[in-house]
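FAQ: What does the model actually see?

It sees only this:
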Amino acid sequence: MSEQRHSVLVVDDKPNMLRLMTKVLGGVAQVHTADNGNDAMALLDREVVDVVLCDLRMPDLTGLEMLRFCKARQPRARFILMTAYASVETAVTALKDGAYDYLTKPFDPDEAKTTVLRALHSVRPRPAVAEGDEVLPGVHARSYVMRELAAVVQQIGPTSLSILIGGESGAGKRRLAHAVHRLSAFRDHSFHRLDCASLPPGGVQEALARLGRSGPESPSVSFVSGTLLVDEVDALGAADQAALEHALERMRGTSLPVSPGVRLVTTTRRNLDAMVADGAFRRDLFLQIRVASLAVPPLRKRSEDIPVLAASLLRAAESETAGLRGFTAGAMERLCAAAWPGNVRELRSVIEHAVAHAGPDSIGLEALPEWIQGEAAFETPWETLTWSDALARGRADVARRYLIALLERFGGDVVAAAAQASVERESFYRLLRRHGIQPEGFRSADQDEE
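And it is asked to produce this:
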């Protein structure tokens, strides 16, 4: 894929300045122009830019106001202020508010070009948008860490080794387990899932019996063939850990022949090594399930995967997205800047929200949930915030994480989650809407992104 060209926005109410800077910068970047603040703000809402070159004084708003708008909308962009009214006070204010540099009019065009080039070289690369990059069956990614993980899975997938997959809730552990199944010799056989998080105490044996075969002579379960996913094994109590250990021993033993065999894949949200050390997890069971181990990184540590994942999730909703060409540059910038405490599952929920609110052509900023549209999604440096703004961001972040944790615990059951929170159901729904969270994304036991 060819590298994206740099983009510069020049904002000035003087047509001759716009023409001059278009000519000076046209060879090094794509140049957008706006002769007023409102047009500039509209452009920043729909296009991703690398550098904004803006006049201090315009009829409708000041360059400092534009700077603050730009930092909220596109924090990765470098902002350069142009002013004929240079003063130490103006320069200090601009730099304090996050400007990269400033130019004093009249300036030499070559000087301006040098400043813009320096700004372009300092800006972090923008995320590219792609529709492919399937690194494993059903797994789309572009990041280095996911490609490295995919290379390991390609090696151990065709074996019969038991695999333990760790990672945060919603990061993609279950999808990776499906990829392992599709790469293995069991690909043409069944994929069985034991959802440990949803089992009542003492429910392992009965759940396994429902998945496999059992009889009066063999009360333990015997699978004919396929892959067994033991999902979120860290949720099991001591008695169920023992039951699972004994069932796995019988499945792999000679008393219950398994033909052609069962491939065991296990997922965990918590560190099982630490749980074993603390006596909270059975060592013998741990040794059975962790012959090989993998770890799925959280989405916030692989933001370059977001455009690929978003495109994949959008295609998955094909019947609801007829006519949609994808995401505007501004919307994609916002998605890539968010923190995603709920990982891929949360991204899926946001995409579903956006599809429901999108216009006829593409998904723009206005279709995204409010928390994505707001400044908090961009993680503006804490040290630039006021005390009250910092507290507001902290409260919002804690609230979102709390709501997500509740929905994860209760499988998207809003009634149960609201009861746990001691909040009326309608009030709980309002909280979910305020923070851009859809309970539907937590309900299906067969969603693969977890």
